[in-house]
């Protein structure tokens, strides 16, 4: 690839979402252009101004109006980080009721390399739908981060959530 590759970082409403700037920094240091798509709930976890300053693009969360220009270049790869229980299950089931999910559901058919970095507690992860959804996403070729669910109501596991793993998983996947 000659042009700068472009990464979409899809941010869901998980407790760790406010640290998404760490992934953006790491990606930019590796030469990626980065645009952020937040779920409507995820938007509330982000410092919009800081992220937009960092990426140089507006955060996308809602669909544009017909005829409006596309705010972001097309994606060469997508990292869903952090990924919630909710968005993982809806994505695997083919539900596209947020812009983020619409982009993810379409990415499969477009063949865009995609990584999911779940950040979910063990009680949610015990729900049978969750394992089935991750299996479905793996079957679709989605690369899954290794984070092990944290204990519920115990402060989360931010210290062992490796943002840079998203980029490691994408290595060699871009033409
Ligand atoms: C403070 C706070 C922290 C949350 N942390 C998580 C989390 O770490 N993982 C998760 O799956 N859901 C978490 N949730 C629940 C999600 O925000 C909720 O399921 C929401 O509907 C997810 O929306 P989204 O998938 O469209 O981003 C949290 C909610 C709140 C209010």
From TrEMBL:
Pfam family, one: Flavoprotein
Domain Flavoprotein: 8-138
Domain of life of the organism encoding this protein: Bacteria
Gene3D superfamilies: Flavin prenyltransferase-like (3.40.50.1950)
Protein name as catalogued: Flavoprotein
Native species: Streptomyces roseicoloratus
């Amino acid at each position: 690839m000659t042009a700068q590759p472009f990464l979409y970082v899809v941010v869901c409403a998980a407790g760790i979402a406010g640290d998404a700037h760490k992934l953006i920094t790491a990606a930019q240091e590796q030469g990626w252009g980065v645009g952020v798509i937040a779920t409507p709930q995820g938007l509330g976890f982000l410092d919009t101004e800081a992220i937009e300053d960092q990426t140089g693009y507006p955060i996308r969360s809602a669909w544009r109006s017909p005829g409006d220009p596309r705010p972001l270049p097309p994606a060469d790869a997508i990292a869903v980080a952090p990924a919630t229980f909710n968005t993982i299950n809806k994505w695997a089931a083919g539900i596209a009721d947020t812009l983020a999910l619409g982009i993810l559901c379409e990415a499969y058919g477009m063949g865009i390399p995609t990584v999911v970095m779940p950040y979910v507690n063990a009680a949610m992860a015990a729900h049978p739908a969750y394992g089935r959804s991750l299996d479905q996403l793996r079957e679709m070729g989605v690369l899954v981060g290794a984070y092990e669910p944290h204990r519920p109501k115990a402060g989360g596991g931010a210290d062992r959530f490796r943002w840079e793993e998203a980029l490691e998983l994408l290595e060699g996947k871009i033409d």
